[in-house]
Amino acid sequence: MAADFKFTLIFFGENIPGGELKKPLERLVELAGKTCELELIDLSIQPEAAVQYHVLATPLLIRSNPLPIRRFIGHLTDSKRVARALGIDLDPAI
Amino acid sequence: MKNLSKLDIQAPVKMPTGIEGFEHLSMGGLPQGRTTLLVGTSGSGKTIFAAEFLYRGIAQYGRPGVFVTLEEKPIEIMRNVKRLGWDLVDLIAKNQLVFVDGSPDPIPAEEVGRYNLEGLILQVRQAILQIKADLVVIDSIGSLFHQFSDTSKVRLEIFRITEVMRELGVTTLMTAERLDEYGHISRHGVEEFVSDNVIVMRNVLSEEKCRRTIQVLKMRGDVHSKGEYPFTISNTGITILPLSAMELTQESSNDRNGTGNPDLDLMTNGGIFRDSIFLVSGPTGGGKTLMSAMFAAEGCRTGEKVLLLAYEESREQLLRNASSWGINFSKWEQEGLLRIVCQYPEAMGLEDHLLVIRREIQAFKPRRLIMDSISAMERVASVRNFREFVIGLTSFMKQERVCSLFTSTTPQLSGGESVTETHISTITDVIALLRYVEINGILRRGIAVIKMRGSQHDKRIREFTIDGDGMHVGEPFQNVQNIILGVASVTPMRDSDRFEKMFE
Questions:
Q1: Is CATH 3.40.30.10 the right assignment for the domain spanning A5-86?
Q2: pLDDT the model gives residue B463
Q3: Gap from A75 CA to chain B (nearest CA, Å)
């Protein structure tokens, strides 16, 4: 079964490890009772991805499912703000 | 990587840009290894300047460059400069140019938390290293403030970008917008933290004419020309027009050029110097065009190339008038000795006129030049603009060592002077005045050489006549005063003369 969300998280690992960065997002999806597929791209390892994904600001989160494709920048620590922006409904969990 | 401490201690070295006139303005170019900020209102020519800096740097000086575009798409820039003959696609193919596309996405990214511009910095750094770039253009840095809402973060990141540039030792040109032509240097105060070197471009509407100027506002630790310099954007890019007295360094010549009239040659003690500027001032119908034609004919006869710039008459009129004095312009044109350029003063701005003249001179390489008339230019520009034009023109003539004759039409039939003369008379080397003289109800013509630098000349006011053979200078006027300065008046004969007459 396909996941409810598909994300690509692009970051600069020299500043912050990806594992730490993705935690709030995964927690959020879980809280909402959804599933997600998450790809991590560390620009300090794959610098060419910066051009490919047209990255100016990091961290950058790209939501490729559901459509339309949307882009979000910034750390994902403010869960309410992130949830609202990503279109994740938190109400059922509350 | 360059040695940081060493770079910082050394006085900045300037790097030529290849932009016409900019080396003169900046006294050498842009400071090498530093960041220069280029500010201007929208439409002031920043992007063209930035693109030309990069293009000439690569194509003329072989310095690889990176174009970071934060506003327009790379494809748009490539298309826009294509009409100036700059093939950026070719440079990209040769691995001498890399674009970093930081133009805004059609759907802007939503901000959900803290961020920095590591992605952009990484892209720029990679591009620089990829082609070992010497030059970087960022157009425009202010666009980051529109793409990202965290202003203080953006400022910090811009500062960080300049640090990266310094570390990599590249010469950087950053553009930024400003809102007013004469106000804050840039819209977001970028200059405060970015750069020691600031250039301002302006596009001011004055007296219904657009006037583009460029100014080096500051260049820390180095000299540069002060003030605003007019520039124009033509089909070859930007041309900044030098206004300073660069001719003062030119050596002068002792060779003389004939004026085409033996009588006038006598008055000027053998003709005018080869590198001088000859101003002929007179009322309408006073013989100026005839003098121009004679001057041109003399040049062609002695095998010198002559460029004739006509602003008041059409080509047909010129040819017809010349032939009525027995001068065959068509023949010399066919022989390649004469080139006639007719143009309406209103056809373009003075900066563009100046550029056209310079191009003509560079292409045709004349030894003599005639401008008939320079006062026609007065009516298409402000006084200040006109003065700049005259200075720019004459300094170029001196530099190219073209013997020039300018005509100037005086508003009144007798005496008086025009705006042209007030601005041009100090710059010209020889001035001849043509005036009508009214004596006993008859209009007669007078000519006087009132100034001739470095040579003796006839100081008397002589009468001259014009007939089918041209101009004939005769005897000095007797008993007439105020020919030059105002309305001529006849003085009574002296007593001794009267006494003599009584016994005739």
A1: yes
A2: 85
A3: 5
How far apart are alpha carbons B217 and B202 in whole angstroms?
A: 12
Tens digits of residue pLDDT in B73-125: 999 999 989 988 899 999 999 999 999 998 888 778 888 888 989 899 999 99
Residue position matching structure tokens 């499912």: A65
Q: Where are the domains of chain A?
A: 5-86
Among B192, B121, B190, B119, CA closest to B161 = B121
Q: What does the pLDDT look like over B294-349, one tens digit per residue?
A: 889 888 988 889 999 998 888 888 888 888 888 888 888 898 889 999 888 888 88
Chain A residues with CB inside 8 Å of B114's CB?
Answer: 74-75
Cβ distance A57 to B109 less than 8 Å, yes or no, reads yes
N- to C-terminal Cα distance for chain B?
101
ipTM of the predicted structure? 0.89
Question: Hey, are the CB atoms on A78 and B115 less than 8 Å from each other?
Answer: no
Contact B274, B255 (CB under 8 A): yes
Burial of B97 (0-12, 13-18, 19+ CB in 10 A): buried
Confidence of residue B502 (pLDDT cuts 50, 70, 90): low
